[in-house]
Each structure stands twice: as structure tokens, then as C-alpha cells.
Amino acid sequence: MSVLVLGGAGYIGSHAVYQLIDQMSDVVVIDNLQTGHREAVHPSAKFYEGDCRDINFMRMVFKVESIDSVIHFAANSLVGESTEVPLKYFDNNVYGTQVLLQVMQENELKKIIFSSTAATYGEVDSIPITEDMPAIPTSPYGETKLAMEKMMKWCEQAYGIRYVSLRYFNVAGARESGEIGEDHCPETHLVPIILETALGKRPHITIFGNDYDTPDGTCIRDYIHIEDLIHAHLLALDYLDNGGKSDIFNLGSNQGFSVKEMIETARNVTGKEIPVKSGKRRAGDPSILIASSEKAATILNWRPTRTSIEKIIEDAWNWHVNHPNGYNSDVTNK
Ligand code: UDP
Asked: Per the database entry, which stretches of residues form a coiled coil (predicted)?
């Protein structure tokens, strides 16, 4: 029996495929390569290029393969873009998940691990964020992820499809052995932007706001190493395999670092200057986001082990130095 990884050519999905194969699982990958990279798919995984909104394609894959469980990463995930083109997000994210659940139901598949986000919470009154806090998203992106969670809840009641939804905080880093890493186009995330600046691919990094109500005035986030994050998915699969009930878990490191602290750490790790400019606040950025991951610790027995930001940045830097142009090593300016 195989695990189907939808979106297995993307940053997070590709790391999941590698860890699943490390633990000897058979893996089937579906990805439409809209934002993913064929080169990021583990050579031992069975790869299908196609779109999860295409029900005939999905039915074909489920017919050909013996799929036992699904990990669903396939989604658009840029908060800013989602405010400009919300229907793109509802179509790809929500409708894509609807088709997936339809085909799972037709094939009597009963287990799904879902890639969700802290963006489901919106503005929060207190830190750290726990799963019982109200989810009132402030972006279409967060709204689509919340809608996908709700769709799964109703599908469980009707069809018995159990789910674990994992709400990620700020994911960064790369596989420790260096084969795969983070390569988005365009890149919007802090850690890769800092490292592209260290590599000289950008003249400077702009800090989005230094007048927040935090000790150094810049936003504080909870950074989690990609390998720790993925480990939680494998534990969640075991949990469902052992009869665990559907649930939602935060995944973070329970600690916060400011934008300035991240840049300073990257200077130490890389030995590069990393020029900085001050910019305006970015719309929709809350000042502090820190997870409580107590629930994942208690129920899934998940404990992140790579919690130092030095380690996260070191592993990301290792990928960037060895892949200065991402997966397309022959293209100079992506
Ligand atoms: N950030 C920044 N400059 C950049 C990119 C990000 O100052 O070029 C800040 C951003 O405002 C936020 C933090 O870095 O406070 C993390 O942003 P990212 O986009 O990586 O993740 P998010 O918290 O939005 O999920």
C-alpha cells in the first residue's frame, strides 16, 4: 500500500516524500508543477504530473495505485496574492480538496493528513496560540485553509474519512543531507530572502516595519525546522493508523525570534554582511505569532529537536550555497 502525497514536488511536500521513503514507505506523488519542481521529487517515488481539480485524472491515479492514506500539501499559499486573486485560491485550494475528498470517498479511503496554517487564526488576543482560540482568518488564503478543514470535518461525519490538520507556523530550513531545499518563485519568505541577500542575489533585505510593539520593533515569529515539521506528519499518520480521532494541531517551536534577530543570526552563520533597509509594514502582518505545540506533544508525542535558529539557518544556507539558482542550476536569474 502507498501513501499519496499531493503537492509532493513543493518545498514542504518534497521533504515529506524524502522522510516517508527514509522510513521505507511506498510513495505516490501528484503535482501539477505550478509551483513545485520535478527535480525535488525523490527518484524512488512514483510521480504523476496532473491537477487535483481534474477528477478524471484523480480517478485514474486512484485506480492504478493501491493508495492507503493521503497527505495533502497541494495549495496556493501566498497571503498577499490571495487578497488580490481570492478566486484563484478558492478554486485551487477549496475546489481541489473537494475533488480529492470525492475521489477518496469513491475509493473508500479513510485517512488524510492536511497541511494547514497559523493563518487560520487571524488576529489573536494572546500568545502562545492554542488550537481552541477562535479561527477568524484575515486573508483569503487563511479562509481557504479553514474551509478545507471544515470540509474534512463534514466528510468525516458523512463518510468516515478521518483527518489530522496540522497548522504550521513559520517553516524554514532544508533537508540536513542537502538534496532538497526551499525554492519559490517569487520568493516571499524571510529566511530564503535573507540568504539570497547573503549570496549577493539581492542587494539588500527590506525589513517590513520596525515600529512594532516588540523589544526591537520588528515582528516576532515562531520558526520551525522543515525536518521537525515533517516528522509530525509521520507521527500523525501513525496516529490515524492506530485509530486516532480527527483533530487539529499547531506545529511550532513555542519560541519567537524577531526579524532583526534572524538577520543577525544569518550574518553569524554565513559570515556575510547582509545589507538591510527599513521599509513600511507589510499589510496583514501581526506583530507576534508564537505557537503552543503542547497538544501535538501530548497527543502525537511530537517534540521538535532542531529548535535553534542557527541550525535552521545553517541547513537552509547549505542548500542555498549548493543551489544558488535553486533547482534550475542553469538559469541565472529566476
Ligand atoms: N519579512 C521582512 N522582509 C522580507 C520578508 C519578510 O521583514 O523581505 C518579515 C515579515 O514581515 C514577517 C517575517 O519576516 O514579520 C516573516 O515573514 P514570512 O513571509 O517569512 O512569513 P509569515 O510570517 O508572513 O508567514
From this structure: none
